[in-house]
């Protein structure tokens, strides 16, 4: 969860929306200006004032055709504040509270129509892994993240809502403050009522739980966020022979608050999913090798393992993501346990 976006692509991804936004507002106006300037310039070569007015008159019918769509376009652009993966829109902080010394929970009320964008169809989503594993019945669930930008600096970072955004109409983020972290600092300074720029939703991964007897999720720290969202989004009542879920998550060091134990997080999901969700914790600064081995061995062939760990922990468990953030080869403990690469999804 700690990988930074490359500076160049970050710059490009931030620049593009800004240029588009600027073009949308300034472009049509500047096109109108340039038409009338050319008109004026060509007419200025004539000697009489009546001749000068004729080209201007000629352009009145033309502007009747040009102006209405431009005005419609400008008003549409200005009015739209719906969450969008391509451009930033402003939303409002509803609440902000510390859940540990390093972690802040920020709830952001979304503008009308935004929450529905979290229910993208499979045509929008379909990552390669879903296709590779997709023997299910088309009930794919997609986990999304959103981009948060710093208002002062030209940088953005991805954050994963820990809640069911579509059902609740708001985004709940838990953000860790890291030393020298720029966007983390911005998020930690947010107060109720503050505007916050969001871009998204962006699919992180999709999974069809009905394809599996058990889905195992392994994480540490804020790496649990995609799993909290997945479990929040899944319906409470799964069929008796439906998928079971195992969440394996690191405990924090003894002197840190275990923020995932907040009643709104793991305990709420345990009471929602009952026996279908098993939660196992493993000690900090260790690898969850035994917990994984137990969970995989207790599962049949139809098992999927989702891994969201820092690179140093992910490598021995299942091998690293590639430099271009592709899945790469399955190695490490999960391969030694007999899993195939289409039974593991590595998350950044
Ligand atoms: C898809 C995705 C979803 C994510 N979801 C979340 C989320 O829900 N909550 C969350 O808190 N983060 C999440 N992250 C990580 C987040 O995007 C940022 O990387 C993180 O908040 C640091 O950003 P920053 O601007 O504060 O610090 P930066 O300015 O990027 O980093 C400052 C310094 O801190 C180091 N650093 C960065 N991250 C960590 C870390 N985790 N631990 C220790 N040192 C670190 C950097 O290497 C750098 O030296 C997610 C990342 C991805 C790719």
UniProtKB/TrEMBL annotation:
It comes from the Eukaryota. Keywords: FAD, Flavoprotein, Oxidoreductase. Residues 30-53 are annotated as: Disordered. It comes from Dioszegia hungarica. InterPro entries: CBR-like, Cbr1-like_FAD-bd_dom, FAD-bd_FR_type, FNR_nucleotide-bd, Riboflavin_synthase-like_b-brl. Its cofactor is FAD. FAD binds at residues 157-159, 174, 176, 183. PANTHER family: NADH-CYTOCHROME B5 REDUCTASE, NADH-CYTOCHROME B5 REDUCTASE-LIKE. GO terms for molecular function: oxidoreductase activity. This is FAD-binding FR-type domain-containing protein.
């Amino acid at each position: 969860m700690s990988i930074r976006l490359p500076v160049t692509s970050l710059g490009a991804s931030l620049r593009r929306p800004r240029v588009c936004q600027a073009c949308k507002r300034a472009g049509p106006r500047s096109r109108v200006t340039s038409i009338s300037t050319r008109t004026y310039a060509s007419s200025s070569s004539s000697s009489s004032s009546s001749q000068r007015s004729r080209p201007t008159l000629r352009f009145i019918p033309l502007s009747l055709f040009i102006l209405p769509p431009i005005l419609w376009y400008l008003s549409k652009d200005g009015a739209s504040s719906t969450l969008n993966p391509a451009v930033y829109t402003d939303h409002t902080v509803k609440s902000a509270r510390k859940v540990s010394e390093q972690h802040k929970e920020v709830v952001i009320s979304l503008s009308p129509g935004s929450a529905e964008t979290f229910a993208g169809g499979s045509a929008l989503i379909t990552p390669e892994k879903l296709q590779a594993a997709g023997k299910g019945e088309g009930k794919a669930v997609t986990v999304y993240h959103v981009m948060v930008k710093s208002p002062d600096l030209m940088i953005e970072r991805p954050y994963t809502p820990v809640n069911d955004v579509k059902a609740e109409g708001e985004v709940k983020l838990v953000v860790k403050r890291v030393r020298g972290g720029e966007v983390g600092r911005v998020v930690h300074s947010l107060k109720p009522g503050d505007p916050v720029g969001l871009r998204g939703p962006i699919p992180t991964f999709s999974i069809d739980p009905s394809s599996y007897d058990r889905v195992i999720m392994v994480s540490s720290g804020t790496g649990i966020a995609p799993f909290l969202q997945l479990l929040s989004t899944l319906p409470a009542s799964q069929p008796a022979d439906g998928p079971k879920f195992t969440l394996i998550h690191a405990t924090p060091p003894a002197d840190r608050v275990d923020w995932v134990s907040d009643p709104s997080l793991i305990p709420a999901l345990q009471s929602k999913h009952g026996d279908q969700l098993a939660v196992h914790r493993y000690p900090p600064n260790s690898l969850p090798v035994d917990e994984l081995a137990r969970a995989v061995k207790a599962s049949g062939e139809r098992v999927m393992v989702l891994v969201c760990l820092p690179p140093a922990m992910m490598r021995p468990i299942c091998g690293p993501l590639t430099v271009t953030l592709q899945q790469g080869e399955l190695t490490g403990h999960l391969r030694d346990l007999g899993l195939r690469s289409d039974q593991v999804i590595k998350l950044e």
